[in-house]
Every structure is written in structure tokens, then in C-alpha cells.
Amino acid sequence: MRQETQGVTETLIKNATEEFLEYGFTKASLRRIAGSSGVSTNSIYTRFKDKEGLFKAIVDDAADGLMNIYLESIQKAKESTNLDQACLEGGQGTNFVLDYVYQHLQEFKLIFCCSAGTEYEDYLDRLGEIEESYYLEFVRKYGQDKMTVDPFFIHVFCRAGWQTIYEVVMHNRTYKEAQSFMDSTVLFNRAGWKAVMGIEK
């Protein structure tokens, strides 16, 4: 049996990442990736099955890792015994998410900006759905008596919340810039939620 050429898989991953970042998944070319890697397209099919398999090999671990971090932070917020603690856990969760995204920045540029046509194109929506479920419970738990929040408001707001992560990545903000922006966002959101829930005016 022919021994696999050392480093081919790593080279394919590197060159595929560059290709997907430049062209997006749909317009990316396996022929270009293979050519820049010095192999045939058959080498890609053998290792990754198809173009989506190659994309998945690049981003899947990062996508799963962020999902796990976010679910853990949501669970901690759910287990909070008062509003201030829940807000604190939420702010810490935002920091954990931002840190993780910037530790895997190329992968999340691919997921957020280049994944149309793959299973990851609705990744931000999936995160938004989790957040929406949490905030529906959050409002019921901490809202003032007779104060209601339109579920549609919660739906839109939670999608917009993840849009902020998308924006700092898409606009190539440095980690320091992104951190400052998210700190302001957390303060803004905390005050806003208290206002719509009738806790503070």
C-alpha cells in the first residue's frame, strides 16, 4: 500500500482555508485547492469525501467548542438565584465566547462569513434560538408583575445579539477593539433588559 505523503492533509487544510476565505464555500474550487497543494483533486475526495467535507474538517471542532461554551454559560445563568447574578453570568459568558472566537478567528470567519451552502450557514441562527429560549425564561423569572415583553421583541433582540459577534469578526476588529465593543454592548443590554422588564426606567 502506498504510504500517504507526509503533510498533504495539513497542506490541503491550509490552502482550503485560504480558498474558502477568499471565495466563500460556493465559489471555492477544489481544482485550485488541489493545484496549490501539489496534489490531484482525487486526494481531496479520498481524505474529505467532497468540498463540504473539507469545509467541515476545517471548522467543525471550533463550531462544536463554541456551542459547548455557550451552552455552559447559559446553564450557569439559568441556575442563578437573582437578577444581578444572572446578568453577571451573562457578561462572563459573553467574554468566554469572544475569547474563544478570537482564539479560532479564521474558523469563525469561515462560519460567519463564508459558509453559505453548508450545514453551518444557519449556525448563528441556532445560537440565537438558544438565547431566545433563555430570555423567554429570564423575562418570566425576573420581570415585574404585570410587565410583559413581546416574544417577537425577544426573538429579534436575540438574533441581533449574535449579529454583534458577526460584525466584529466581519469588520476585522482587533481583539482589544472587539472586547471594548462587547463590554459596551453588555452594559447597554443589561440596562435595556431591566427597562423593558419594568425593573428600572
From TrEMBL:
Domain of life of the source: Bacteria
Keyword vocabulary terms for this entry: DNA-binding
InterPro entries: Homeodomain-like_sf, HTH_TetR
Pfam families: TetR_N
Gene3D superfamilies linked: Tetracycline Repressor, domain 2
Record-annotated DNA-binding residue ranges: 29-48
Residue span(s) of domain HTH tetR-type: 6-66
Cited SUPFAM superfamilies: Homeodomain-like
GO molecular function: DNA binding
Name under which the protein is recorded: TetR family transcriptional regulator
